[in-house]
Specification:
With 366 residues, the chain is an all-alpha fold. The chain is 89% helix and 0% strand. The protein folds into three domains: 145 residues, no CATH class; 122 residues; 58 residues, no CATH class. Helix 6 runs antiparallel to helix 7. It is elongated, with a radius of gyration of 50 Å. It comes from Aquimarina mytili. It holds the Pfam family DUF4407.
Length: 366
């Protein structure tokens, strides 16, 4: 039963192979087994690739089965349509489109399996890319908030400097009126005279202004710090919101690109393996000598071709004979007086009716 199944997979005519030798049957059993197991590998590869896309086992398996069946049908068609000829060059030219198709199928099958085989290495590359994306994302988001935060910091520093300048001014006035009282500067008279009182009042007024300035600027700084804290919270919120997008950067295309970042030689050998598997049935038929099955198939096809050619010739002769008979029949009819008189009578009646109709129409117009 397994033998019949693999012969079915090879696309060969089971009835013809049934009358062939065991060696001939085994050749097509091997070709059919290769086609079948290639379809199995295609199913596995497609299922894994689709799972990375849909993240659902049932969906991936369902479409994987469809893809495996498609590859099975294509391979079976490719092998079954290659006919053995007497010239190898003719066979190679006949098989060249099928070889190109087999190469494309090998690429499609091998790539998802490469993704699975090198999964750990690909995960490492993806992790590095995700970290780079996360840093770049933070820098990009920061550019939206940095100007506003820089402006707030500048305003805070300006307010603090304003207070510091006022404190410097107050301290200077304090030193002035103390020096006046001690007689070190100003009038150089020891004691609290009128000049001292004037300078003391000026200092006290500046000190009151400093107290009010500190209170006002402190309130402004608190408000600016609140704005700065709010901007920082918005920045963190945007970073957190965009992070899942970066974390999910592990789809099929991302993994293929990550695979391309790895050394190419291991992937190339895996591709060669699947290319050999995919093209082995084709080259098996090309390199194998013309066997018993090929001769029987050629004999059956030649018999059908001869029969079709014979029927076409018979139809052509029949048609030519029919034309000759028709020409002779109508030629004899042209010599019969009775047929001539009958057609002359009918023609006379038709001409009369046409003349009457023309007369009535002209009379109506007048």
């Amino acid at each position: 039963m397994l033998k019949r199944f693999f012969i079915l997979c090879s696309g060969a005519d089971a009835d013809i192979l049934a009358d062939s030798s065991s060696g001939e049957q085994n050749k097509y059993v091997g070709i059919g087994a290769t086609v079948f197991f290639t379809a199995i590998m295609a199913f596995i590869a497609a299922t894994y690739a689709l799972y990375t896309v849909f993240d659902n086992y049932f969906t991936a398996i369902f479409f994987g089965l469809i893809w495996g069946a498609l590859i099975f049908n294509l391979d079976r068609f490719i092998v079954s349509t290659i006919k053995k000829k007497d010239n190898f060059i003719d066979e190679l030219l006949q098989a060249s489109p099928r070889i190109i198709l087999a190469i494309i199928i090998a690429v499609v099958i091998s790539k998802p399996l490469e993704l699975k085989i090198f999964e750990k290495e690909i995960d490492r590359v993806l992790l590095e890319q995700k970290n780079d994306f996360a840093l770049a994302n933070k820098e990009q988001i920061a550019t939206q908030f940095t100007p506003a935060i820089t402006q707030i910091d500048s305003e805070i520093e300006s307010l603090k400097k304003e207070v510091t300048d006022k404190e410097t001014e107050v301290n200077g006035l304090y030193e002035t009126y103390i020096a006046e009282a001690e007689g070190r500067k100003g009038t150089e008279l020891v004691g609290k005279g009128p000049v001292y009182k004037e300078k003391r009042e000026k200092h006290d007024a500046a000190l009151a202004e400093l107290v009010e300035l500190k209170k006002a600027n402190t309130d402004k700084i608190v408000g600016l710090e609140a704005e700065k804290t709010e901007l920082a919270a918005q920045y963190e919120e945007q970073v957190i919101t965009s992070q899942p997008i970066i974390d999910n950067f592990d789809g099929l295309m991302a993994r293929v690109n990550a695979l391309n970042e790895l050394p190419w030689l291991p992937s190339f050998f895996i591709f060669l393996l699947f290319l050999a598997i995919e093209t082995s049935p084709i080259f098996a038929k090309l390199l194998s000598p013309k066997g018993e099955y090929d001769y029987k198939l050629e004999d059956i096809e030649g018999e059908v071709k001869t029969w079709v050619t014979q029927k076409e010739g018979q139809r052509s002769v029949l048609l030519e004979t029919d034309h000759t008979i028709n020409d002779k029949v109508y030629g004899d009819l042209t010599e019969e007086e009775e047929l001539y008189a009958y057609k002359k009578k009918i023609a006379r009646e038709i001409m009369k009716k046409q003349q009457d109709a023309f007369y009535k129409r002209q009379t109506g117009i007048l």
